[in-house]
Recover the amino acids of this structure.
């Protein structure tokens, strides 16, 4: 399989469209800014998407002059070889990927609220129960010191695992301590929740479960196992 096809398949697995030979783009939100209330308030969404995520995209595009190969790659492929680039690419490239992934991981639709049969079976196999998985994920989110992310991933051996990463790192990066294909991610930077929850990260994490897009997560799992 050639490299371009590999990159395209990875992009499809993540749920993003493949784009190369151009600046990185910020896709529109798949719902209105108030659609996730009361779990995530509209003001936070406006700032988080419109200011923070936009800044990551703009700052990443500013690095193309330093690394001409960047605009030949998908954002997923950039993560996989992040050690080639400077800190600005790592932080902003990670920030762009993570946030695009995060928005698609959320949904106000009740019908998106359950894992697929296959994913639920694997969760129970690898964690003992869905409740055990949630507990482990919550611990990863609340236990991350400072800023970062909590993840549900598929490891190269096919098993599910929960991990957390600092700053804007993610499990796709070649520098990640725990590598794998991300299925679900939670942003635990303070800008993601502080306006509504202040220092109550645990409350934010609890509310997150009410807006998880399990259909998208399940689709990612199905793609990762093809």
């Amino acid at each position: 399989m050639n490299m371009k096809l590999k990159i395209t398949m990875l992009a499809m697995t993540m749920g993003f469209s493949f784009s190369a030979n151009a600046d990185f783009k910020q896709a529109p939100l798949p719902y209105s800014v108030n659609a996730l209330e009361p779990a995530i308030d509209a003001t936070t969404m406006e700032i988080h998407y419109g200011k923070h995520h936009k800044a990551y995209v703009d700052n990443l595009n500013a690095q193309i002059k330093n690394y001409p190969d960047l605009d030949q790659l998908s954002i997923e492929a950039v993560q996989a070889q992040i050690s080639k680039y400077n800190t600005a690419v790592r932080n902003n490239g990670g920030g762009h990927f993570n946030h695009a992934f995060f928005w698609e991981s959320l949904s106000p639709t009740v019908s998106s609220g359950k894992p697929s049969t296959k994913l639920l079976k694997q969760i129970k196999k690898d964690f003992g129960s869905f409740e055990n998985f949630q507990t482990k994920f919550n611990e990863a989110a609340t236990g991350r010191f400072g800023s970062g992310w909590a993840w549900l991933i598929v490891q190269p051996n096919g098993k599910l695992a929960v991990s957390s990463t600092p700053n804007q790192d993610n499990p796709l990066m070649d520098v990640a301590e725990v590598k794998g294909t991300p299925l679900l991610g939670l942003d635990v930077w303070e800008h993601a929740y502080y306006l509504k929850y202040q220092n109550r990260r645990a409350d934010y994490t609890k509310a997150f479960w009410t807006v998880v897009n399990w259909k998208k997560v399940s689709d990612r799992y199905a793609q990762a196992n093809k």
